[in-house]
Specification:
The complex is a heterodimer of chains A (about 300) and B (about 260). By secondary structure, chain A is an alpha+beta fold. Helix content of chain A is about 30%, strand content about 25%. Chain A folds into two domains: about 130 residues, Arc Repressor Mutant, subunit A; about 160 residues, Chorismate lyase. In chain A, the strands form two sheets. Chain A has a six-stranded antiparallel β-sheet with strand order 3-4-5-8-7-6. Chain A has a two-stranded antiparallel sheet with strand order 1-2. Chain B is an alpha+beta fold. Chain B folds into two domains: about 80 residues, Orthogonal Bundle (Arc Repressor Mutant, subunit A); about 150 residues, Chorismate lyase (3-Layer(aba) Sandwich). A six-stranded antiparallel β-sheet of chain B has the order 4-5-6-9-8-7. In chain B, strand 8 and strand 9 form a beta hairpin. At the A-B interface, helix 2, helix 3, helix 7, strand 6 and helix 11 of A face helix 2, strand 4, strand 7, helix 9 and strand 8 of B.
């Protein structure tokens, strides 16, 4: 590893001029092909020395089980998806990537090859690697929050597919945290797609007696928001306790959402209670990270009026 | 070890027989790691309850069509991480529930919640400089201006990294703004008086090199990303911030009261 890193620096001919504690290779909006990667340390007013020169190597190695090229691919892929390297702009050069991430040339090439195979970058011999232009806002950077959070109507092009509908004993973690849940539950697992692209995997546990009022057909329809269906059957949720977590997609989740194993997903766990504090449902949603963000507005200083709502 | 006859105790962890067959999406991920992820998820969500018995090695081999070596590697990693306990002659068990400090931040009780956060964590200022606001954040708060004070901080709980927060402040307040900001532990309290509303979005990103190094996670590991715009009473943006949080150490909660 050390040899690779040295090799990268030598082939660039930087010698000691490269700042090993410099910024990483993907600063926002880099316009031209960067020959010298970590720059702009002159304007710093204050910088503590938490960055060790060998950090890339150590961090990549600690993620055993997922190959280096895939981790690098994921980071580059995200940079492109978010538009931090816009269409036509240059990606850092291979030696830059080698040095900054402490990986070998073949690892860098594998990551770039995968992006190229997906048609997201152009590699031009003798010139460099460039982000591929797309007409209009790219599909990858589209935030679908507004569509998914729209509880009122079924958005066009969105559909639910039920993959599990069964009575199960209440899982241990629910019993443990919320003894009031009851012994039995209806397990409902669905995938929601927007324009044929799976966006969210929803797993819901509904107390048996409340779940009895639901019908499968109702929940498979476009407008089948669970809480709305529950409200229609007389169990209106008035308090939603949400908790957010960042997870890696395990093989089953990855398969359901059509993303690579280990890709980041946003987990929103909601405990819905009715006005009398009774539990109406426990819903755990896994969203594709590149398609969804939760939004909240919070008022400060007026706690009695503080209210949060998810909006697009 | 003979093939012991056991009832399938953990249907969810065992569900699809061919779940781990190589597919296009799995390229670059070790086979053992896929099993590790599955079991890890089952342990996390309680499908495999704490102190309960884990499926046996032969069971896992058959269910997921994996070799004994692969299954062992996955179990060894879980054991190394203290998630399971292997008892010779008895079997493998899920470890008792972990009591690692997980910090809970309740977004509804913001000033108070941040106060608690400050009391139990330490923040190190990594950078403080004047700089351009990145386009993605500038779009959230158009009134902030193109240039602002950028403050980058790493927050730790019991010495372990918790979050990496970068804040762009429109106008430092007080007689000695720079020092004042560096000393103050929370941006919301820094702007306490004039801050009236926070609008935030919560998403997930893969850790880039910078975040991975600071938060001590592998490159590409999932992090919670909170982006927030802080506004004063008149609705003018005072600051915009982006915080990358380790989800295993921080619980982010939000209670919503449904509008009737």
């Amino acid at each position: 590893m050390a040899a690779c890193r040295e090799g990268g620096a030598l082939s660039l001919g930087h010698g000691g001029s490269v700042n090993p504690r410099g910024r990483p290779i993907l600063p926002p909006a880099r316009a031209a092909a960067p020959r010298i990667c970590p720059a702009a340390s002159q304007q710093k007013v204050y910088t503590s020395a938490y960055r060790l020169p060998s950090r890339m190597t150590t961090t990549i190695q600690s993620g055993a089980g997922v190959s280096r090229y895939l981790r690098l691919y994921r980071v580059l892929s995200q940079t492109l998806a978010e538009g931090r390297i816009g269409a036509g702009q240059a990606l850092p050069s291979e030696p830059c990537l080698m040095r900054d991430y402490g990986v070998s040339r073949s690892t860098v090439r594998r990551a770039l090859a995968r992006l190229e195979a997906e048609g997201r970058i152009d590699r031009q011999r003798g010139r460099g690697t460039f982000a591929r232009g797309r007409g209009g806002p790219s599909a990858a950077s589209r935030d679908l929050s507004a569509i998914l959070d729209d509880a009122q109507g079924g958005p066009r092009g969105a559909a639910w597919r039920i993959i599990a509908w069964q009575r199960v004993p209440t899982p241990a973690f629910l019993c443990g945290e919320h003894p009031a849940f009851g012994a039995g539950a209806l397990l409902l697992r669905r995938i929601r797609s927007v324009e044929r692209e799976p966006i969210v995997l929803e797993t819901a546990y509904i107390p048996e007696e409340i779940g009895a009022a639901l019908t499968r057909r109702q929940l498979a329809s476009d407008a089948g928001a669970l809480l709305r269906s529950l409200a229609a059957s007389g169990h209106r949720a008035s308090i939603l306790e949400r908790e957010f977590a960042a997870l890696e997609a395990d093989p089953r989740v990855a398969g359901s959402l059509g993303i690579a194993v280990g890709s980041p997903v946003l987990n929103v766990r909601t405990l819905a209670r009715d006005a009398r504090q009774g539990i109406v449902a426990y819903v755990s949603c896994l969203y594709r990270a590149d398609r969804y963000e939760a939004h909240a507005a919070i008022a400060i200083g007026r706690p009695e009026r503080a209210r949060a709502g998810r909006r697009g | 070890m003979a093939l012991v006859r056991r009832s399938p105790r953990h249907p969810a962890a065992m569900e699809p027989a061919t779940a781990l067959a190589t597919r296009r999406l799995d390229k670059g991920v070790a086979r053992y790691y896929r099993l590790y992820e599955l079991l890890s998820a089952a342990l996390d969500d309680g499908t495999l309850p704490p102190q309960g018995a884990m499926p046996s090695e032969p069971e896992l081999c058959v269910r997921h069509r994996l070799s004994r070596t692969t299954v062992r590697r996955a179990l060894e990693r879980l054991e190394r991480e203290g998630r399971i306990i292997r008892r010779r002659g008895s079997g493998t068990y899920a470890a008792p529930r972990r009591t690692t400090p997980r910090f809970c931040l309740d977004l509804d009780a913001l000033p108070a919640a941040l106060g608690t956060l400050q009391a139990h964590t330490t923040a190190t200022t990594l950078r403080f400089e004047r700089g351009a606001v990145p386009a993605a954040l500038a779009a959230l708060a158009p009134g902030l201006g193109a240039s602002a004070y950028r403050l980058e901080r790493l927050r730790r709980v019991q010495g372990e990294p918790l979050s990496l927060t970068t804040t762009w402040l429109a106008q430092p307040t007080g007689p000695r703004p720079a020092r004042h900001i560096q000393r103050e532990t929370s941006v919301v309290t820094l702007l306490a008086a004039p801050t009236a509303a926070v609008r935030c979005s919560i998403g997930t990103v893969a850790a880039d090199a910078d975040a991975a190094g600071a938060l001590e996670v592998p490159l590409g590991a999932p992090l919670l990303r909170v982006r927030a715009v802080l506004r004063d009473g008149a609705g003018n943006p005072r600051a915009v911030l982006e915080s990358l949080c380790r989800s295993d150490r921080l619980r982010l909660k939000l209670t919503e009261r449904a509008r009737c």
